[in-house]
Amino acid sequence: MRVLLVHPPLLPAGEVTPPLGVCTLASWLQAVGHDVRVIDLDLELKVQNQSDRAYLDLFARSMLDFSPQVVGLTSMYSNSLQAEHLLRTAKKINSGITTVAGGSHFGALGKQSLQRIPELDYVIEGEAEAAFAALLTGTSPIQIPRLHYRSDGELCANKPQPLMSLADLPAMWSTLSDVVQLERYCATIPASSPRRIIYIEAGRGCPFACTFCATAPFWEQRYRVKPVKRILDEIQYLYEEFKYDSFVLVHDLLTANAKFMSEFSDAMLASRLPVEWMANSRTDIRLRGLLPKLKAAGCWKLFYGVESASARIQKEIDKHLKTDEVTAAIQDLTDHRISATTSFVIGFPTETEKELSASVALGAKLKLKGVETVQFHRLRLFPPSRLSRSGLLGTFDVESLKVEYPFLQVPSEDLNAIQSDPEFFSGYWTPNSRAGTAEQLAQVEMFFHHAVALAPVTIAAAAQFIGSDLISVFYRALQNGQALKREDLDWETGDLFGNWKALQPLLKIWVEEFNLPNWQTETLRALMTYEGQRLGFITGKELQAALICGRAWAAFHSKLNLEEVLARLESGAPLTPDLLSSTAVILKRRSEGRFQAYTLAQERIVDLLQRQPDLTAILDE
To answer: Quick one: 2-157 is in which CATH superfamily?
Structure first.
């Protein structure tokens, strides 16, 4: 049969990577004999330089060109309304076409999806390969596990079958050359990009049971991996044919099996491929003995869901991480020159402002320890998580919708459609939390997600000075300042200096609201000045405040002994008034966007201004 698989618009991204779930399904259906096409509307909007609303026209054109007999769509929670519009468009073009949907949203809410969208014929719950293939062969719907369908006006749902062995999946990328043109994706990667990144599936399933997680129950909490050779073959093909050199190994918790990680690392070492990779882990899975091998085998980063600095919240959400284990895990990575991303979830129902303050403080501390990215995300009631089934009351969270919506502007008709169906769009009803209102938590997410990235030293110092009052004072600052909007911030392409300019007014008000002793206020002001100068230097956007510039360096005046400030913040030692002293900070560019910072004593500033050879020669080398 002719099958058109569709990836609805998801992200207004600069670089576009192939949609992994759709491509995996395409390779399976093609292997069992079907004529498959894939349309990735993120890619089409990007390469054809089309406006947001053009995705329906692009889809319609693809329908007319291919004349499919079946259309299959996947959906995330943030783009399911776009998927709905696409389903309706498919039926308008061909009322006799068969429509099938799955993915994390439709696949978790099969009954609700069929109720909401008359144009949708079938929904597959969870793992889709076997059920979709059976449907295409004409098997009676009643005999297909995981299928949701209509029969005589009634909604029906079949029980799931056992999960498949991932060893049965066909080799993917090398067999999809006629279906997915990877060179088109490669063309979206800027020449200046330090990495050519692509996602590949390493396996499925997490054996843990965190109450807020929707992905672990989606894969039935069963840990599975592809054969090591299969993963290695995919990496080798993508590197040799398309020069991809950085691979995100998609798996909910790949490092849960130390034996697999060791075998995979051995295979990567034996291959001698000059590539890097990253994976998901947990901070209570100690990899200390494995880290040297992981690093040698190309591991550049691990992702950790930290969620909260509160032991009480950790117990309540069944995560059970300990703060000392978190910091120890990050230190282990830093010692082995492996990077990290850490993620926090904010707004749990019983979370307090003080507990949220502790999470922000921990995020800043981890950033200073070398974490590449610290994320803050509001709690979402995404099915089939346990929390989504707990009957929590919530408030419609329009700011969350704006942050996660595929396009920068949310049309009023889309907003009304989502707000009118709280059962289907439950993810946008934020649970009531003691940590703040929906509007307040939206500001916490937007502000600290970016402030910890851009001004971690300032945030860490503020946490030391006022501790558990970080959030309560932030809320006070919001009353006296301008709230942030999604469109103020670049979430995708990383306009660091633009984001800094957007945050600065609220950051300044927040610091002034602390009502601290003069020396502490001056310390925070000096740190903000330094972090703005650093960002201006890194991005090349603003060097007017420089005392002197060289070929790849610039010197700025500072009111602080920044070297000692950083040392104390990293060690947990207290900051003191004697750190206020006139110095110069020298920033020097290194390769791949990196930089180094040096502190120059007051008595040598004149020598620098006079370009004394013993100083400038070192900086210019």
So the answer is: Cobalamin-binding domain (3.40.50.280)
